[in-house]
Amino acid sequence: MARPIVVVTGANGGVGFGICQRLVFQLCHATPTDALPQSFAVDDSVSELVGHDGLTLVMACRSVKRAETARTKLLELLDSYINKLQKKPGYDGHAHTFRKNLVVDIISLDLAMVSTVFKFADEITNKYPYVSRLIFNAGIASFSAIDWVEAFKQIIREPVNAVTAPLFYSQHQGELSIDGLGWVWQCNLFSHYVLVSFVLLLFKDANLIGPQYRSIQHLLLATPPCLDARVIWTSSIEASPIFFDPVDWQNKNTEHSYESTKYQIDLVSARLDQLSLQRPASRRIRHFNTHPGVCSTNVANALIGPVLDMCKLLAFYIVRFLGSPNHPIDPFKAAIAAVHVSLASLTFVTLFDKDISRPAKFGAETDRWGHERVGVIRVKDWEQNEAESDVLLGKLEALYQSFKNAEEVTMNFETASEHM
After folding, report:
1. Other Cβ atoms closer than 10 A to 349
2. By the 8 A CB rule, do 250 and 181 touch?
3. Res 215 pLDDT > 90
4. Rounded to the nearest 10 degrees, how much is the dihedral formed by the CA atoms of 298, 64, 262, 391?
5. Residue 205 — pLDDT band, cuts 50, 70, 90?
6. Mean predicted confidence (pLDDT) in 3-17
7. How far is Cα of residue 80 from the mean position of the Cα atoms in its chain?
8. Nearest-angstrom CA–CA distance, 18 and 288
């Protein structure tokens, strides 16, 4: 039986590492609990559950050195987990079989440079016959300062929301990548889009399966039917249409580049999945949108320091105990949405296929005691911005084509120079 080949971007830390850890822990079981239907599943029959006796996990990271450290830690955690499993009564040996067939690879990927994204696609294409799951976890936020006056106002006015979707973090404006694009926008959205660019393919011959230029959508299309192909995008509970500006679509000038970019991910992932559903089942690459809830990472540590970071963490636990479902806090728990959408049968996670006009995203949630689950929320203001999703896709594709054409000219020039 074919084994999953899963690519996770930004896999060396935070939620990305949590996704890798949760994924391998779950696959140590013949029936992973994260593959079971959640409360929102329309069809909760478990007859379609299929375990996997192996996995190829590709950690796509900017720093190979940090990725190697993360891989070592991941395997140590996994071995410790398997040792605990084998001591339990009725242990069936599945975890050891899975461990023997587990491959954890590292491939360099810097989302701030389109040229490295092309090189990453080349390397993946040369090494693997297919990719069954592509998890777009990597992302950045460019915080510059805390507006303490606004912070106190929001804490007094809406204390739970102040530690869920804070509005008092100031963000840098005008930051550009080496490619001259909005830095936050490129790292969160555009470079990920480059890897799956197939909008043109969708409107061409339905039998065409040839690769788009230095993209890996052809590897997704080559996924064996028993695995199906899925792209999992990572949005945020902070994604907001309030800050979405179709004119400043690269978010170069906005003071809320993070929230706006994440909302664009909501629009793009929803529209790509709608387009995919128009194709024959054998040619579908499903696109799912997830968010990790509120998780304790080092994203804002440079602004607040260790003391305030501890206060922030305490506030997270307090609001969770008071009933907020949106505070998994731990990256391992925050990974449940992405892992569930990766492992669950399509019958459990395609609840909106019959109502594709109202797309949604899957989020990591917990109860007050920290027991994790997956929740569902609708994409905000989809009806008002649905047309903008097509416009945005057109801009993304045109920009991709411009980089593709420039890269082809460079490669042709280098090839000609070699023959002179």
Report:
1. 24
2. yes
3. no
4. 160
5. very low
6. 96
7. 27
8. 18
| Residue position matching structure tokens 């799951």 | 133
Which residue from 55, 69, 133 is spatially nearest to 100, judged by alpha carbons?
A: 55
Which of 8 and 210 is assigned the larger pLDDT? 8
Q: Are 11 and 61 in contact (CB under 8 A)?
A: yes
Q: How far apart are CA 44 and CA 286, in angstroms?
A: 20
When pLDDT is averaged across residues 387-408 and rounded to a whole number, the result is 91
Q: Report yes or no: 328 and 293 within 8 Å, Cβ to Cβ.
A: yes
- Inter-helix orientation angle 64-86/14-27, to 10°: 30
User: CA–CA separation, 420 vs 416, rounded Å?
Assistant: 6
Q: Note whether 219 and 228 are within 8 A (CB).
A: no
Query: Is residue 214 over pLDDT 80?
Result: no
Residue 184 has pLDDT above 60, yes or no: yes
Tokens of 115: 């040229």
Nearest to 26 by CA among 413, 267, 241, 333: 333
Per DSSP, 62 falls in state: S
Mean pLDDT of 330-357: 84
* Token reading at 285: 């690459």
Consecutive H or E run containing 138 = none
* Least-confidence region, from 104-108, 165-169, 233-237, 346-350: 346-350
Q: For residue 408, give every residue at least 6 positions away whose Cβ sits within 8 Å of its Cβ, in sequence order, or none.
A: 213
Alpha-helical (H) ranges within 87-141 are 94-100, 114-127
Instruction: Give the whole-angstrom CA distance, residue 156 versus residue 308.
Output: 18
Report, as an integer, the average pLDDT of 14-28. 97
CA-CA distance, 174 to 184, in Å (whole number)? Answer: 10
